[in-house]
Design goal:
The chain has about 160 residues and is an alpha+beta fold. Helices cover about 30% and strands about 35% of the residues. The protein is built from four helices and nine strands; from the N terminus they run βαβαβββββαββα. The longest helix is centred in the C-terminal third of the chain and has 24 residues. Its main location: cytoplasm. This is SsrA-binding protein. Pfam families: SmpB. Belongs to the SmpB family.
């Protein structure tokens, strides 16, 4: 029996790895309305500039834009509303410990399907400075050149 490996990623925050150092990541459920799920499945979610806040022991994701579902009429919600994330108390306390340190924030990296449910990949991240971003780009270019040279050498 051949298993198909499918990529269930629905939306991704591509700039996150460029703008932040990722310290730790974890999976979280997200509280959505039916029309939001349908819109996400169509690929109409945007994680750019989104972040998570901890308010009264609950985690909310903010600035995540989910476009209104075309056939949803009165059931559509505000595209930028704060959405609650579903985490265990121990995970929330770990996030509180990280964000208490200066410079750390919580950002969503991706939205994906797992057993028919929408999940969020959350990351604890620390912001990069401009020179860190330049160094990362130089390292990436150097690695690409080395790989190219090795490929030519062993032809």
């Amino acid at each position: 029996m051949i298993k198909k490996k499918t990529n269930n990623t629905l939306a991704e925050n591509r700039k996150a790895r460029h703008d932040y150092f990722i310290e730790e990541s974890m999976e979280a459920g997200i509280e959505l309305v039916g029309t939001e799920v349908k819109s996400i499945r169509q690929g109409k979610a945007n994680l750019k500039d989104s972040y998570a806040d901890i308010i009264n022991g609950e985690v909310f994701v903010r600035n995540m834009h989910i476009s209104p579902y075309e056939n949803g009429n009165i059931f559509n919600r505000d595209p930028l509303r704060a959405r609650k994330l579903l985490l265990h108390k121990t995970e929330i306390s770990k996030l509180v410990g990280y964000t208490a340190q200066k410079g750390y924030t919580i950002i969503p990296l991706s939205l994906y399907l797992k057993h028919g449910r929408v999940k969020v990949n959350l990351a604890v991240a620390k912001g990069k400075k401009d020179y860190d971003k330049r160094d990362a780009l130089l390292e990436k270019a150097a690695k690409r050149d080395i790989d190219r040279q090795m490929k030519e050498r062993y032809r």
